[in-house]
Every structure is written in C-alpha cells, then in structure tokens.
Records
---
Amino acid sequence: MNNEMLLQKSVNRKLKEYREIVDLMKSAFPPEERLPVWWLVLIAKTKDVHFYAFYDDDRFCGITYTIETENLIFLLYFAVSDRLRSNGYGSQIIDRLKDNSPEKEIILNVEKPDITADNFNQRVRRIVFYERNNFYVCNFILSISGIDYNVLSTKRNPNIKEFGKIVSRYCIGHLKKIPD
C-alpha cells in the first residue's frame, strides 16, 4: 500500500472502474440497503452530496458516498474492494475524509449486532473497525424501512439535530433514541 494519500475521483459512468464500483456496491450492501448506483451518481451532482472512488496509484480501492452540511458529514455508503480488505485501505479512506474536512463531525450507520443474523461476526468486526478509527457508538438508532441501525460518530456528543435534518431532507429514515 502506498503511504501517500489515496487519489480520489468523483464517480460517474465514464470512469473505467464504473462496473467494478457497481459490483462492489452489490457485494458490500444487501439489496434492501442499496440504492441504484445510477441514482446515486445523479444525486451526487447536487452541491452537498459526493460519490468518490479511491485509488492507490491506479488500483481501485473503494468508495464513499457522503451527504454534507456545514458541520457534518453523513457517510451513507463506504466500502473497500473485497480483494483489498484488511490491508489498511479502510482506515486510510476514513483518514482522508477526516483530513478533507477536519472541522466536521462524521456520522455513519451500521447493522446492529444481532446474534441471529448470518453475518453477526461481520457486524461486530465492522463496529470494532470504526471504534479503532475513533468513532463512538451513539445513544440513538437510525430506522430505515423498518430496519434499525446503530449510529456512530466521530464526536462523543453527536449533533443529532443536524443529522436529523439530513435524514429528513433526503428521506433516509428516522432517528430513535435508545432507551436508557
């Protein structure tokens, strides 16, 4: 892995890795969590939405899809290429997001650890990865189409009001406080 900063390109249909990006979205996210890539590309033409592919030299590493406000970045989609996972690229992409907007809080959602889920271990590993990258599990969940997700933030006391505005504006779901 190149220790230099990863190259970042906006995703569009003309990228030679476009098909690989579509395939990564299909392998990284179950159908009920995945929006069509063509739609994501279209919405990313708006001012506050960004769909990026990341590269180590010419090697495609992964993607991020973010919705931003003045103070917050909502990382809606984040995936590293299957063949490159566990090589530090995920942390490097997260670091790049933080470096691009050091004053902004980053919020994301992950599947809740459910012992009955087929991917229980993966769900736990995902949370451990984010905690290792200085994210904190929040005391509220994001409910999308009846599925509840844990919310993590780079701040111990997340800006729930601003995050709620993003969730509402983009019709992503709704937030619920976890009972104490």
---
Amino acid sequence: MSSNIVWHKSSVTKEERRSQNKHQSFILWFTGLSASGKSSIANAFARQLYERGNQAFVLDGDNVRHGLNKDLGFDEAGRKENIRRIGEVSKLFIESGQIVLTAFISPYREDRQVVRALVEDGEFIEVFVKCSIEICEKRDPKGLYKKARKAEIANFTGVSAPYEEPENPEIILDTEHHTIEECVKQLTSILTSKGYI
C-alpha cells in the first residue's frame, strides 16, 4: 500500500444516513450451496424492503463476476479475493446507510469471518441458506452440477471443492423444507423483532 494515501472523512455520517432512511444499515450475508436459493431469497426480500421504503441492494455472485470480479477464477485464491472485494464493497453500502444483501456461496468460514471483521458489531448478519447437496443437485437450474459431475467444471463447491457450513449463523433458512415466500416471511419476522427494519 502506498504511504501517500490519506483517508478523507465523509461530510455525511453513517448515522445521519441511517436517520434519514429510518432504518439500520447492515449486511445480510446469504451463504449456501449452489441452487440452495440464496439469490431467490435475497431478491424476493429486496423487493419487499423496497416496497416498505427501505434502501437496499443485492450483490449477486454471478452478477459481480460479470464486472468487478471478472478477472478472478474459481480456485481457492480466486474465491478468497472474490469474497474480500465483496466485503469491502458491502462495507461501503453500510456507510451509505443501505441494507446490502449478498448472495455468494462463500464456501470458507475464514473468508466470511474476514468480512464480519471489516464492519462493526451487529452490521454483519450471516444467513445460512440450508439445503442438502442432493436437493440442490436435483434442482440444478443452471446445469452446473451435471457439468461438475462430468468434470467439465473444476473446483465446484459440494462436488470437487469443499463447503464449510456456518457454525453459528445469526439466521438459518431451510429451503429444503420451506418455500422462498416462507423464508422471506421468517427473515422479515426475525429482523423486525431485532429492530433492524
């Protein structure tokens, strides 16, 4: 890092932005296997937040790899850098007073912890989108599991690369036994009861 870089303080504080928006700003970090329902829940919940007048934005794994992270691969080093960058972008959303919903497999506990450590206590909410590999593979909307089983995709989480389930997530959404709508309702109830929204 250059020694000539100086941090400039914002003229509008995070607290002022939160006050104007009338809600907290935080990260909802959706983690889980491919096809577990992360993006579906994140987008459904974002729509609900929008209709309530909340400021929220979804960062989706595939979408981010079309732009910001298009230079990264899917080996362990590429995955770690992918999550590090998303963590830094998410921190900026928090500073801007918004709710950021991130839908990333983010297979390594250590990487998720790195993002948690970037922000203040209570600003990182880990949401484990729980669904067995068998059900995810049956869903396989993008045909990725099929390709991974044929060794056409290397380092595929759950098949040829590991997924480390969260040990103590703030929220667990079981998409194997509950619909997207039911999960959104559960998420709304939890966050409302805790005063986040």
---
Amino acid sequence: MPTRVLVPPEGLPHMVAVAALVRYTDDLCDSGPVEGRTQRFEEWAAHVGAALDTGSSEHQLLRPYLHSADVQKLSRTWLDSYLAGTRIDLDFPGFAQESDYQRYIDTVVLPSFMVTTEAMPGLAPDRNFLSFARMLSDGTQRTDFLTDVFEDLRDGRLCLPLSDLDRYSVTRADLEQGLDTSGVRALISATARSARTSLIQGEQILGAIAPDYRPIMRFVMGFFHKRLDDVETRGAAILRRPYRDAKVTAVPLIARSGRMGASTQALPGRDVQKNCVSSSNPPLAS
C-alpha cells in the first residue's frame, strides 16, 4: 500500500520489480534446512547471473527485473555484491563483536539497499549518498534484529553482537527465556538508541533523491522509527512473542509523508539519547 500511494505511477513497476527480486532472494536464504537452502540459493544465483549476462529469462521475477534494469540503466555491481554477500545468511554465524556486525552491513545490507534505491530515476550515488545509505542500512537492520529477536532465537539464531550481551551482563539463555532483567532492558534500549541514531544520521539522503521519490523514503524512515518506538515501549516483552506491525499505524505515516511532498525534511522521531551501543559508524569498506 505505501508504495502504491507514494511512488509515482511511472516508477512503480520498476520499484516493485526490484523489491520482489530482493525479497525472493532473502527468502531463499532464510527458509528450510541449511543444506537445501544452499543448493537452492546457488542455483538461483547462477540463474540470475545467466539472466544478467544474456539479458533474458523466463523466470517470472527476473523478466520484469531485466526490463527495469534496461529502462532504468541499473548497475549490475550492487546486485552482484548483494548476491555474493547474502551467502552469509545461508548458515548465519552470528556476531562476536560490533565490527562483525558492521562488516555484515557492508557486505549484505548496504548492497541490498542500493539495489532497491537505484530503481529511483536519476539517482547518481556519490560518496556522500553512500554514506547516508550506509547509515540507513545500519539503522534499519539493527531495528529488524530487535523486532525479529523472538523468531530468530526460536530458530537458533542470535543476531545481537555477543560483545553487547557481555557489556550488559546478559547471556543468550536470558534472551531465550525472555527474562525481564535490568541488563536485558538496558541491552534492548541501547540497541534501539543506536538504531535510531543511524536512522537520523541517514536522513540527509532525502536531499539526494528525486523530489517525487522523497515521500516513499520518508515513509520508510518513519516506519522504522515507529518500530523503535514500539520496541522501547515493550522492552523485554519483545523476547516473549513475535513482533507484528500494526497496519493501522501506517496510514497516518503515509498521509504525513505524502503531505510533505518534495521537502527534504524527515518525519520527526523520538530524541536520540546517549550511551548507544555503538557511538559511531566506521567508514565505508574499501
């Protein structure tokens, strides 16, 4: 619904085509036994590569993507980087340190973000754009790891850096059991603040996007701020049941994002507090 309302009609098919390709690829990495996932993904990656080499495919997702890539003159570089980096999700090892998480942002999340945003016409990402994109990639991914924590732990995955757990004297068992301790609450709160800091630092990307596409990007950022609001309100309760977005909350965000039109201002979020898990983001990987 947000995409249909906030994206210009001429750009809608291209953004849908790109987003569908990324979503399908992500799902291949996240579903089923590791052995089966690996085989399916490698077959899919080979299929994508062949389609890009030849410019044709009979696959129902690749056909529209190839058309959009031709019309929009999309770069292959980010898609190749995304496919290469996404392999880490096939047998996710977790993060020992914050630096491991940041490498994940560089190799998986940022390429995925760029594959999607390059579908916006007239985008010529320079280093400043990439810096803002990386901040948003960090903020949205850290938010996702918080909202997905119940299901990730249920599936045997821990996506928060172990160094963060150690900092607040929290164990994996504490999280798996959904304990409501001061350390668990502090870990969740600090992780949410780090995510919000990155989101706010990345808001300058609105100035680098074509005016007609600012509403949809503004909505996306506002949507993740809303998720962080929910996480901070629920605290340790996010460990004990799946997180679900309230569809009704998207309606005012869509309306406000649309009303602000070509403005380079983002929707206001809660104030960023101090003592984040990660006080700064490293430079882009070379």
